[in-house]
From TrEMBL:
Cellular component, GO, one term: outer membrane-bounded periplasmic space
PROSITE patterns attached to this UniProt entry: PDZ (PS50106)
UniProt xrefs under NCBIfam families: prc
Gene Ontology biological process terms, A to Z: proteolysis; signal transduction
Keyword Secreted part of the UniProt annotation: no
UniProt name for this protein: Carboxyl-terminal protease
PANTHER family registered for this protein in UniProt: CARBOXY-TERMINAL PROCESSING PROTEASE CTPA, TAIL-SPECIFIC PROTEASE
Gene3D superfamilies: 2-enoyl-CoA Hydratase, Chain A, domain 1, 2.30.42.10, 3.30.750.44
Length: 437
């Protein structure tokens, strides 16, 4: 069926509905909405009949839907059937591509973070990098879906992306595509026998992988862990339930996070169960501007519950929750709609502000001409903070010494120092308590 016939039928149906609504005395606002829908049908019909070339009807409708959702906030979007299937595969922890979490900012496809141990990570892609072309095709204004489609492809095939990065001229990076088996948890014993646990994303397997990692670390330590560096840097988030269950590992009861929708009655609180796998041993949590969404829930919970010391730089500031609503069982894709904001245990929204570290430490010294602008607050149509709070840059930021080697992780170095100090103080308290008894 040609588009103008569809559009005319839509317009007729809408007009009849408008008359019925008017007869029932509905308010003017609803009548105005129906008139705008009639306008939409008229424009569709005119495009189909008069545009210079034959348009793709499916692409037109999808673009209109995404335009409507994009006017709400940066995270509400329509997923066609293929994109919905890709998203389901991604949350299960395996998908094809380069291993980059991206968002749209000022019409630029912008890297939130490369996923650890993926082709993009090994190629040196950084948070805040702007992907301006893929295989020579401009991605400026193209949108997330187009960019992701261009970057994905059969494993083993190369793709060249053009990167714009503050302080340097745009440059090309050729990366070989691979099946991305996301390793959501990385762990090891660091310097001074310091337990280290990095969570790269929150997919369906994150908590079970973290439990196995902690058990392995205990075995390597020969007993209970004296402390932990929990690394949430460049973790773009993921599943809410996984952020709650990860927080639950380190909290003994009490609130982890709450979510509130438009209706105040739709408020939900998520609590930890009794029991702390570390038995109160100190935790240093590393965060940065790539720590978003679910990782901010964990960081906010451990900070507010005084369970961990946060170190690094301000997190991304995504304090909203999206609900994925399948359409016709997924046959027509799905609607990803922002339905709630989330709040840390103290009742604080980190929307647009991010979670601030207790100890501000930069990964490297700033590059010449570099502008600190990577955050939720910089995204088009980003939700504002309900309390009116604004993101602030830390004036007490600690930078690596000028002679610090670029390939050495200064934030991790400082986290190990901080944790060692905390473990020593805890051990001294234990010894003091034992002497008093």
């Amino acid at each position: 069926m040609r588009l103008h016939i569809i559009a005319s039928a839509i317009a007729f149906g809408i007009g009849a509905a408008a008359l019925a609504v008017s007869a029932q005395g509905d308010d003017r606002g609803r009548d105005a909405t129906f008139r705008q829908l009639e306008l939409f049908g008229d424009i569709l019909s005119r495009i189909e009949s008069d545009y210079v070339s034959d348009p793709d009807q499916v692409e037109l409708i999808e673009a209109a839907i995404n335009g409507m959702l994009g006017s709400l906030d940066p995270h509400s979007t329509y997923l066609n059937a293929q994109a919905f299937q890709d998203m389901q595969v991604s949350t299960r922890g395996e998908y094809g591509g380069l291993g980059i979490e991206v968002t749209l900012r000022d019409d630029f496809v912008t890297v939130v973070s490369p996923i650890a141990e993926t082709p993009a990570d090994r190629a040196g892609i950084e948070p805040e990098d702007r992907i301006i072309a893929v295989d020579g095709e401009s991605m400026i204004g193209a949108g997330i879906d187009v960019a992701v489609e261009r970057m994905r492809g059969p494993a083993g095939e190369p793709v060249t992306i053009t990167i714009a990065r503050d302080g340097v001229e745009p440059f090309d990076v050729t990366i070989v595509r691979a099946i991305i088996e996301v390793r959501s948890v990385i762990y090891r014993m660091e310097a001074n026998n310091t337990p280290y646990l990095r969570i790269t994303t929150f997919n369906e397997h994150t908590t079970e992988a973290a439990v196995r990692a902690l058990n392995d670390l205990r075995e390597a330590n020969g007993g209970p862990l004296p402390g932990l560096v929990l690394d949430l840097r460049s973790n773009p988030g993921g599943l809410l339930d996984q952020s709650v269950s990860i927080s639950d590992l380190f909290l003994s009861g009490g609130e982890v996070v709450s979510t509130r929708g438009r209706d105040a009655r739709n408020t939900y609180r998520f609590n930890a169960r009794p029991g702390d796998v570390l038995n109160g041993a100190p935790i240093v949590v590393l965060i940065n501007a790539g720590s978003a969404s679910a990782s901010e829930i964990v960081a906010g919970a451990l900070r507010d519950r005084e369970r961990g010391v946060l170190m690094g730089t301000n997190s991304f500031g995504k304090g909203s929750m999206q609900t994925v609503i399948p359409l016709r069982g997924g046959r027509d894709g799905a609607l990803r709609l922002t339905t709630a904001r989330y709040y840390t245990p103290s009742g604080t929204s980190i929307q647009a502000t991010g979670v601030e570290p207790d100890i501000a430490v930069a990964f490297r010294r700033p590059r010449e001409g570099e502008i600190a602008r990577f955050s939720e607050a910089n995204l088009r149509n980003a939700l504002t903070n309900e309390a009116g709070a604004e993101r602030r840059e830390r004036e007490d930021m600690e930078y690596p010494p000028e002679d610090w080697a670029e390939d050495e992780d200064y934030q991790l170095h400082r986290a190990i120092e901080q944790l060692s100090s905390m473990m020593e103080r805890r051990e001294a308290r234990v010894q003091s308590g034992g002497a008093n008894r």
